[in-house]
Amino acid sequence: MNFKLKDIGPQLMTVIAVVLIFGFFTYNAQVNMENRGIDFGYGFLSQESSFDVQFSLIEYDGSHSYFRAYLVGLLNTILVSVIGIILATILGVLVGIARLSPNYLINKFAAFYVEFFRNIPLLLQIFFWYFAALRALPLPQDADPIFGISFLTIKGLFVPAFIWQNFNIFFYSIVAAIVAIIVIRTHAKKVQETQGKQIPVLLISIGLIFILPLLSFLIGGVRLSFEVPVLKQLATTSFIYEGGVSLPPELIALALSLSLYTATFIAECVRAGIQGVGKGQKEAAASIGLTQNQVLKLVVMPQALRIIIPPTTNQYLNLTKNSSLAAAIAYPDLVLVFAGTALMQTGKAIEIVSITMFTYLSLSISISLFMNWYNNKIAIQEK
Q1: Chain mean pLDDT for the chain
Q2: End-to-end CA distance of the chain
């Protein structure tokens, strides 16, 4: 294949310019660091961190390395991002559909929610939930139980912990149910396209996701027990819950804020996607006897998703990056633990900032790749 210079010239010049600019700043930084006697390297990652973290998904204390501290911050960032994305998606879809409801109260309430939460800065919402709403909760010794097993206090949410026996068998049953559901959905889609018949995929899926795990308990030897939080007195006026799982108030405030804020933008994406489907198609679907739910599921949403997914992907990326605001309320995410405490202790600014930037870049690219794959998968194929 022959290329003309005028065709590749602009691209080639752009690449050369980027390389030269990057090389200039890299060389300048290296010279300045040498003049100041600053060593460059990532060997500090294996050194002892000498600081503790209040909340961690993995075992960690001050005797562990800086790399371990990096993993703690990364996992905490992923945790709040995943929780935020799930809650924001569910709430955003519901509010987006509600904005198109013919019911006046539902429509106006959804519109008020969108306009209210999206026009208040996210940082202020985080401050509200953390310093106002959650600080008004009772002390551990004064908290009333939720369903007799959970407690929501000023020190966080305390819920029972699952204690499993033969968890691997239960896990395999879940995997088998998911595989079976995928196979059935694929078969049902082919039957609908070729014969025009509908197989009750939802009911079958619900049955499989309950029956197979239930069989693992009945004949697979799987056992499940709960460790309920118990109030313990540490001092005359100091109480804490022991046992179970504790979610710190910083995580709750951050997850709520990110979810409520991002859901407003997802709701608008959903509303725009549904309105992008021609009214005539809805009327045609209704004329052949489809119910309102069937019209939404079989006609509207498959076409609306093509409009909804690209801007929703941007909101997922924004939510993940906005999680870095966690440092404002001392939630131990990647920025606070690694780009904050670790940086101040080691002085390795360039190394730590570069690792942090690359980490967020990798998370964003991973989300984009997954959403692009899903967008291509659900795209309507013309035959």
Answers
A1: 88
A2: 32
